[in-house]
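pls design
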């Protein structure tokens, strides 16, 4: 379990760095309204952030998910591997889906406050140059300050854990699709049907495919989560009120807003996350082969024989 956690942690850091700029664009598009439209689309958002906020504008609030997402990945892969041990056939699609549900639900309570902080920091200082942003008056000084102020204003349930229900609603179907999608790709595109025999470039493609599959089934929930977490406390009474008001004012398309940068983000993020985890697991967590096992058993037998023949040496050790 410790190794699974460590491998997932490293994979999470790698994936976060690769995909974070796309995540910033996704959140900006998800949270803008028709009455306050700053960006006409994904490309326009990319260009304006780069011009107005510099390259650092894409990485606002990354310190929170840098550690948090890495922690979450460690938890997800650890719990999923433990859950697979409860089934006789751990690699069937149904089993992978069930274990994905367990893993997704387990990490949501940690994921929700991390994403609350990330979302609010990403929305801070929109359109300001980085050098100006550093000197301007802004609400949050950093991730810990954001958590502190969220707790002071609304407490744990309505402040720090704001949007938890939508995090559950998003992550349960997302991870239910994530692990079966990876298994499907390996089965159909590996020369032998085994993960270890798949070329690295195919692993990267498979990671991107897996991420897109997971986001496709859960994306509308992510939109509501982002809008609810980013909004001022008095704007929405709850997630259902946020859903109804968003639909009434902007129609069904609001639930797909930002999907293009989300899928673009899914490619580099997941192209590195699961393949890096799988590579580390194959490299550092290889089981003892049959020859080593026989040799070890033989050595143990020799020790037992020596122990039986020469008890004086044992007594001297005592």
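designed seq:
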């Amino acid at each position: 379990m410790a190794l699974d956690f460590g491998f997932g942690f490293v994979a999470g850091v790698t994936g976060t760095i690769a995909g974070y700029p796309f995540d910033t664009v996704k959140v900006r598009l998800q949270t803008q309204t028709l009455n306050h439209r700053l960006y006409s689309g994904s490309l326009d958002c990319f260009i304006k952030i780069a011009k107005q906020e510099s390259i650092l504008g894409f990485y606002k609030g990354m310190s929170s998910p840098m550690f948090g997402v890495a922690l979450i990945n460690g938890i997800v892969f650890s719990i999923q591997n433990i859950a697979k041990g409860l089934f006789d056939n751990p690699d069937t699609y149904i089993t992978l889906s069930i274990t994905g549900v367990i893993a997704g639900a387990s990490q949501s309570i940690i994921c929700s406050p991390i994403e609350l902080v990330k979302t609010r920091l990403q929305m801070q200082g929109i359109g300001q140059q980085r050098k100006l942003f550093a000197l301007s008056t802004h609400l949050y000084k950093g991730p810990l300050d954001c958590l502190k102020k969220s707790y002071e204003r609304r407490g744990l349930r309505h402040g720090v854990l704001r949007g938890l229900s939508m995090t559950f609603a998003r992550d349960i179907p997302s991870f239910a699709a994530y692990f079966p999608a990876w298994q499907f790709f390996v089965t159909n595109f590996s020369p032998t049907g085994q993960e270890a025999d798949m070329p690295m470039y195919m692993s990267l493609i498979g990671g991107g495919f897996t991420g897109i599959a997971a986001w496709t089934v859960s994306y509308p929930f992510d939109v509501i989560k982002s809008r609810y977490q980013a909004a001022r406390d008095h704007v929405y009474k709850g997630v259902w009120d946020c859903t109804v008001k968003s639909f009434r004012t902007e129609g069904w398309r609001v639930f797909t807003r930002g999907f293009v940068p989300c899928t673009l983000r899914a490619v580099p993020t997941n192209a590195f996350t699961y393949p890096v985890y799988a590579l580390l697991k194959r490299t550092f967590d290889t089981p003892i082969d049959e020859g080593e096992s026989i040799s070890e058993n033989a050595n143990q037998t020799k020790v037992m024989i020596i122990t039986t023949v020469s008890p004086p040496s044992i007594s001297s050790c005592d």
